[in-house]
Amino acid sequence: RVQLAESGGGSVQAGGSLRLSCAVSGYTGNSYCAAWFRRAPGKEREEVARISPTGTRIYTDSVKGRFTISRDNAVHLQMNGLTPEDTAMYYCATAKWWDCGSSSWPDNPTTYWGQGTQVTVSS
């Protein structure tokens, strides 16, 4: 069965960097897409970045040029130039590639979620 385990959150000052990782197990081969979401207090869930099985990446506008999503046996989110507005709980999500970006994404029944990791950026 699919399991996700996140790590790498923490507290940094504005301008600092963090690297989040999500260990993924239970898929056959490279057949899944992966994404990082975040939810800040009082705000809606936001998709931060997504990567396809072939490495195609998309980012929300507010993190372009600062965050980089990558994958090997895990899914990583390198976050540079952090600002207090990046403070949130960050979640890793995976799904079969045909479900990513679909009309029901990310609330497909076959989307898997990690437990979340807190990122706090102080000014």
Brief synopsis:
With 123 residues, the chain is mostly beta strands. It has strands at 3-7, 10-13, 18-25, 32-39, 46-51, 57-59, 67-71, 74-79, 88-96, 112-113, 117-122. The protein contains no helices and eleven strands.
Lay out the secondary structure:
Layout: E1 3-7, E2 10-13, E3 18-25, E4 32-39, E5 46-51, E6 57-59, E7 67-71, E8 74-79, E9 88-96, E10 112-113, E11 117-122
Parallel strand pairs: 2-11
Antiparallel strand pairs: 1-3, 3-8, 4-5, 4-9, 5-6, 7-8, 9-10, 9-11
Describe this structure in words.
This protein is an all-beta fold and 123 residues long. Helices cover 0% and strands 50% of the residues. The protein has strands at residues 3-7, 10-13, 18-25, 32-39, 46-51, 57-59, 67-71, 74-79, 88-96, 112-113, 117-122. The strands form 2 sheets. Strands 2, 4, 5, 6, 9, 10 and 11 form a 7-stranded mixed β-sheet that branches. Strands 1-3-8-7 form a 4-stranded antiparallel β-sheet, with no helix packed on it. A hairpin with a 2-residue loop joins strand 7 and strand 8 (74-79). The N and C termini lie far apart (41 Å). The mean pLDDT is 95.
